[in-house]
Structure formats: C-alpha cells, structure tokens
Amino acid sequence: MINKIFRMTVSIAIMIAVALVIRHFSTSGNSNGQREGYTISLRTIESADPNQPQLQSGFGGSRLVMGTFANITAVAEDDETIKASIEAAFDKLVEIDEMMSDYKADSELLVVNRHAFAGPVEVSDELFEVLKASVYYSGKTQGAFDITVGPVVELWRRTAKDGKKPGEEELAEARARVGYEKLILDEENKTVHFAVEGMKLDLGAIAKGYAIDRAIEEMKKAGAAGGLVDVGGDICCFGVSPKFNNIWRVGLEDPSGESSYLLVLTLSDAAIATSGDYRRFVVVGDKRYSHIIDPATTASAIGLTSVTVIAATAIDADALATSVSVMGRVKGLGLIESIDNTEAIVIPADEKLEFVKTSGADAYIRK
Ligand code: ADP
Ligand code: MG
C-alpha cells in the first residue's frame, strides 16, 4: 500500500514536471492546418527589410520522444521546407533515442552495457562521440559528471519502486563499478571496453543535449532559416525566430509550480538545459531525493533545486547542468564562470526562489 503511494507520488510528480516543462514561448502560430497526421501551425513573418524573403514559421506539435515531450518550431520560406525540417529533426531525435536509450533493450547503449566487459565493443560514430564528450566532462568536473554512475542510479531507481533507500553495503558495492577511468575508449577502432565487470553506462544527463544539437543540424540541412528544438525543456535555437528577429524567448519554469515562469530568457543561436531535484526525484518518508547522483559519495545531489545552463550547444548545456547540480553552488558556478560564453542560473534549495547567477547571465534575462 505504502509502496503504491510512493509510486503514485512519483508518477504524479513526473506528470506535473512534464506539464511544466513543455511550455515555452517560441511558438506563436495563428492558423492551424492538419497535414499528414500532424498539426502544423503556420504564420507569415513580416520582415522589416523588403529585400529579405518572406518567411513563415511552423510548429510541429508535441511528440513523445526520449521519455518526454519534444516541440519543434521551424522558420523557412515555404511550408514544404518547414515540414521537411521539422520531420528531419524529429526523425533524428528518435534515431538518437534508439541508440542511447536506457529503456530500449536493443539500444546500442544496452548492447555495450551487456558486452563491453567481455571485450571491446565497436560502436557507431554517434555513440562514440557522446562517450568521448562524457569523458571530457568527467575530467572537467573532477568526476562530478560521470556516465559510469549507472550501477548507483539503478539502486536509486529501485527506491522509486519500493520506497526504500539503498543500503550502505550495496551502494559501496555499486560504487566499485563506477569511475570514468574504468571506461576504455579506443578512438581508432571506435570501441568501448569496461575495465571492471558490472559497469553500466547511463547517458541520461547528456544524450538529450546531443540529440537536440543533431536535430538542429538536420533542420539547417533541410533549409530552415531558423528553428527551435525543445526536448523536455532542454532547448537549442538558431537563426530567424517567429518574432521576426534572431531572438527566441524561452520561459524558465517555476520549480514550485506556483507561477508558470520565473523569468524569460532571450536566446540567439544558443542552448539551455535545466537539471534539478524538482523535476525527477524519489520520495522516502518526507524526504525528496534527486535522480542526480554524486559519483564520489553515491548520495543523491543536494543543495540546488534548479540549475539552468546557457551554452552554445545543447550537449554542453545538458552535461554542465547536471555537473553543477552535483558540484553545488560555489564549485559549480566557479566552473561555469571559467567557461567562455556559458552562463548559469541556479536556485539554491535553502532559499525561496532566489536566483544565483554567473556574471554574464543577466545579458540573457529579459528585463
Ligand atoms: P533530466 O533527466 O531531468 O534532463 P539531467 O540532464 O540532469 O536531468 O540527467 C539526469 C540523469 O543523468 C539521471 O536520471 C541519471 O540517469 C544520470 N545521472 C545521474 N547522476 C549523474 C552524474 N553525476 N553524471 C552523469 N549522469 C548522471
Ligand atoms: Mg543534463
């Protein structure tokens, strides 16, 4: 019975989080048309410059991908190009999800998890790129970001089902199978090898960002003059926006759920990602445990309710948002300050919705 309540609490929390996450300001279609099974909202964009081509924007509707909702907006001269860019972007998201999902038994990632201890496993260029980037972030964050955290994540996921915190002993046993230095990547042969039996890679903190960047690339290839890809609130945008300029407005959600937005960010050719304990967590007793794990201690990350990172690419924003959640306010914001063109806005758990920002973050906040 108690388990059931825990499970329900978690599902309701996830549902609320998803509902909050999917709201953003990027789309403002004023006419709807049903085409080939999906709704596309189109509007004409009046350019201030008469020499510029007339553009239209289209919204591809919300679709379930990567365990959350994805929203894609495209700007182009004609609706064929809009449709083609939106479809190409969704296709890419689905393709990356099939490779890197933790839930699809035949995903490339799970094949690696099953066989990479027995011997090196050859992987696709895409998966290799993400693994390499992951190791890079591990180095940059002194191990706060670590995709080998899988065995510990698994124990905490069990908590979501049975409502019991993982025991010290099993956490220690799982910790022995964690550590990015145990992940052996061979660049030349594009292989992955585990140094320790029972290792498990988890790309939950980076695959979404990577997929978003790849989807944006597809939209550009398909001829879009601008676009925005939003997967569960992690967003990348480029080029001309539906507001007739290169500025895309994105609402930063309110973790308390009391209002729709805490603030509005203006982005041009940039990405944001948000991590935090309010989005996905498990409840034991009256305590909330984040789904983000500190690999050093195996404890669930505490201290920051919400971490939003603005960066040039979604993969950077995604990985860094998780990193800052683990590193905490002082170290985490220090890291972001040290990276060019990258900013963070965090909400510490102990202060009621007071933002703490890096020095350049204000430039992105709409006054
Ligand atoms: P969200 O899933 O809400 O986008 P994140 O991008 O922060 O949030 O990813 C969190 C997920 O990443 C967890 O659910 C888990 O699968 C994985 N993870 C947890 N802790 C770490 C960590 N320290 N480093 C890398 N990945 C992690
Ligand atoms: Mg992340």
Structure write-up:
The chain is an alpha+beta fold. It is 34% helix and 27% strand. The chain contains eight helices and 17 strands. β3 and β4 form a beta hairpin. It binds adenosine-5'-diphosphate and magnesium ion (MG). Magnesium ion binds next to β12 and α8.
Shape summary: globular
Q: Mean pLDDT across all residues, rounded?
A: 86
* Helical residue percent band: 25-40%
Taking the alpha carbons of the first and last residues, their distance comes to 49 Å
Tell me how many strands there are: 17
What structural class do you assign from the helix and strand content?
alpha+beta
**Tally of helical runs:** 8
Rounded to the nearest angstrom, the radius of gyration is 21 Å
**SSE run:** HEEEEHHEHHHEEHEEEEEEEEHEE
Order of adjacent strands in the largest pleated sheet: 1-2-3-4-8-9-12-15-16-17
Brief summary of the model shown:
This protein has 367 residues and is α+β, with helices and mostly antiparallel strands. It has helices at 2-21, 79-100, 108-115, 125-140, 150-162, 168-175, 207-221, 314-337; strands spanning 31-35, 38-45, 55-65, 68-76, 121-122, 183-186, 191-194, 226-231, 234-239, 248-253, 261-267, 270-275, 281-284, 287-290, 304-311, 343-348, 356-357.
